Amino acid sequence: MKDLLFFLSLARQDRWRLALGAALAAASAVTGLALMALAGWVAAAAGAGTVLVMGALIGGGGLRLLALMRPVLRYSERMASHDAAFRALARLRLWVFDAAAPLAPGPLTALRSGDLLARVTRDVDALDALYMRMTTTLAAALAALIAAAVLLALTAPAALPAVLGLYILTALVLPAAAARCSAAPGARAVSASALARAEAADLVSGLADLKAGGADARVIARLDSASVNWVGAQRQLNASARRHGAILSLAGPLILIAGFAAAHAGGAPPALAALAGFAGFALFETALPLVQAGEQYGQTRTAAGRLRALSATAPAIASAVRPAPAPASHDLAFEGVRFTYPGADKPALNGLDLTLPEGARLAVTGASGAGKSSLIRLALAFYAPDAGAVRLGGAPVPTLDPGDVRSRLALAGQRAELLSGTVAENLRLARPDANEAALWDALALARADKFVRELPDGLDTWIGEQGGLISGGQARRLVLARAYLRDAPVLLLDEPSEGLDADTEADIAESLAVWLDADPRRSALIITHRPRLLALAHEAVVMEEGRVIERGAPEALSARGGAFARLFPDYSSEAL
Ligand SMILES: Nc1ncnc2c1ncn2[C@@H]1O[C@H](COP(=O)(O)OP(=O)(O)OP(=O)(O)O)[C@@H](O)[C@H]1O
């Protein structure tokens, strides 16, 4: 309930629109009640031959007026309440993104992408019942209840206890029973559908690899089991809805008959007894949405809980409330850094000391798992060190504005991260206002211009889901071009020439040197196993088990006969 109240409070900005929807819903319900009651009165009075000419005229005119008002009010209410609800949902989606963004990629890596998608889409959609139904349904029920009480008190007071008693029973007990029955299957439906989406996303994104490894049948079986679970929960919800629907369809005529009988027994003439019965019937109609809200309670509550859990997850680095002033220099330093990934049993970085002064070119090498990529993740403030400090321009990174930190660092990561979009869209992630000439310059530097010109639509060619329609080497060059386009003073490159042929690698090394030479303040940290790129660096370090074990100019390290020389026995000839 606390979660639901929290999400209701998020719609504060839409309160006047929600209030307008509620007022129109109340007016529509009262009009419906008046229409039914008057119709009952006119029909019964005319049938009994007691209706006076004046009464018939008033009754007939009133009926026509109410019959016209009812659809107009209903339409206006739907427009107002849907408008308010959609605005609230749009705001809620932004809230979810705001909650998720600081978690990326650190704590968010624990969440499967399909599950995250389910939160942003299905869970947010499940809350529409909260915004769409909550206020309008309650307002309509309350207004109709008061109107019916007044009408019956004035016309057929004997029917009052029966009609109101039965209504309150229907409007309170049935929704409560529906909420109770839907709680467990509703929660299961939300969790199972999120799981099914996560399995489906994994299947789609990794289908080729899964097929190649013969693991597709296993993932399909998991998807199948999640879907069966989801359908089972949905069936339970439908069965519960049918049960409550059947009770509701009995309750309507029952209130009608009870209202009529009680009024008649109290001495009311047939026309007023009919009025009482039909007023009860119209009143009962407002109980239906209450029961529907009860049916959705389980799903709405679970979705709200899942969204709140996302916002309650602590980011790897909390943004400084008052960030330290942006430092003047771009020196990057790791001082005694120790870091263990959440849930891991051994540290990825263990006493790392490393400096990348402004204008320097540092190559980082070492065996797989030595911690090379992890140091980049800490530099980008994706994670905070457990001990020691990462400093930019002398200031600890967590004290700085994360946006400022990331604007000074450009990354071409080990995994060529491309979005499903065009070449231009992928490049402009680095600089949204870049013109075409700037895009081509960056592509030329990364030796990617030739292949992009040969694509069917050049810059506007769609490169597929995660760049799936271009080769691994082409993807790598696009990511490098994107890092150049960003034009940040510190360039972080993680295996930039992996998967490229020797000529392209040599071209890239040359253009990288030109780019770095163009501004003496530009610095680069290059993680690589390729002698061609190592030769670009003023200094190289060898990492082992999360720390630096050797540091020096590549030529000197090669001559020293230590770890570097063991990794690159033919360095001198290969670096040429
Ligand atoms: N997200 C993660 N969660 C848990 N452990 C991780 C995670 N990422 C990396 N590790 C672990 O941290 C250690 C260092 O990994 P890292 O990726 O930094 O090594 P690396 O030197 O870049 O290796 P490679 O050259 O293979 O990329 C490894 O033992 C790895 O298994």
UniProtKB/TrEMBL annotation:
GO terms for biological process: cell redox homeostasis; glutathione transmembrane transport. Residues 332-570 form the ABC transporter domain. Residues 19-302 form the ABC transmembrane type-1 domain. The keyword Cytoplasm does not apply. Keywords: ATP-binding, Membrane, Nucleotide-binding, Transmembrane, Transmembrane helix. GO terms for molecular function: ABC-type transporter activity; ATP binding; ATP hydrolysis activity. It is a multi-pass membrane protein. PROSITE patterns: ABC_TM1F (PS50929), ABC_TRANSPORTER_1 (PS00211), ABC_TRANSPORTER_2 (PS50893). It comes from the Bacteria. InterPro entries: AAA+_ATPase, ABC1_TM_dom, ABC1_TM_sf, ABC_CydC/D, ABC_transporter-like_ATP-bd, ABC_transporter-like_CS, P-loop_NTPase, Type_1_exporter. GO terms for cellular component: plasma membrane. The chain crosses the membrane at residues 20-42, 48-69, 130-152, 158-178, 245-265. It is found in: Cell membrane. This is Thiol reductant ABC exporter subunit CydC. It comes from Alkalicaulis satelles.
